[in-house]
Amino acid sequence: MKMIHSPLFRRIQLQLLMNLTARALGERPVRLWTHSNAEALRLYAAFTAQHLHDGADEVRLQRMNNEALKMGRLLRRVFWIGSRSRAQRLVVALYRNIGIQVSFTADDRLCFNRCYFSSCYTPAACRAASMLDDGIIRGITRQPACHLSFAQRITEGCSCCEASLRKTTHKQDICP
């Protein structure tokens, strides 16, 4: 997994994230991979902040989640993830590449201690973008029957975001 930390991989990761987000939103993706890592991250944050400022309708949220789930499953296969600990390490590394410091607790809760996007996202944009987190993390950890549930968010004035993957039975539980 050492290649994850290369500048080229970071830009490719952001471009793939841009492509899936734009496709789900019915927008044209911005070309990121030719920019520096910092500029690519800034452009992606600006794109998502603009298009998700007021949140998104149920159809777009579901498309974002489905596209992200496919990406998470692909990443699981590409990086030969066979254990829970390797899946968690991959999530931590991928999120570090996009300016998010995340860790898993002993009981599998996620703590997002720093988030690049928190300075430019509204609470509604954060909730909508969380559908991407939900899909990618479920795909990597091979937990499709669960959904990411946030207990608190930085964009709502908390010091960190806290979330957990939990099994859901009701459709309204899918949206964070």
Defining key terms:
176 residues, 4-stranded antiparallel β-sheet, Muramoyl-pentapeptide Carboxypeptidase, domain 2, alpha+beta
Kindly report the average pLDDT value.
93
Count of distinct strands: 4
Structural class: alpha+beta
Reported for the largest beta sheet, the result is: 4 strands, antiparallel
Order of helices and strands: HHHHEEHEE
Number of helices: 5
Kindly give the count of domains.
1
CATH fold call: Muramoyl-pentapeptide Carboxypeptidase, domain 2
Distance between the termini: 30 Å
Shape call: globular
> Share of helix among residues?
40-55%
Task: Tell me the CATH architecture.
Answer: 2-Layer Sandwich
Low-confidence stretches: 171-176
Q: What is the strand content?
A: 5-15%
Task: Report the top-level CATH class.
Answer: Alpha Beta
What's the topology here?
Blueprint: H1 7-25, H2 37-52, H3 58-78, H4 84-97, E1 100-104, E2 109-115, H5 123-141, E3 146-152, E4 161-167
Antiparallel strand pairs: 1-2, 2-4, 3-4
Description:
It is a single chain. 51% of the residues lie in helices and 15% in strands. The chain has a single domain (2-173), classed as 2-Layer Sandwich (Muramoyl-pentapeptide Carboxypeptidase, domain 2). The chain has 5 helices and 4 strands. A 4-stranded antiparallel sheet has the order 1-2-4-3. α1 packs parallel to α2 and α2 (37-52) packs across α5. It is globular and about 35 Å long. Mean pLDDT is 93; it is low at 171-176. The chain is an alpha+beta fold.
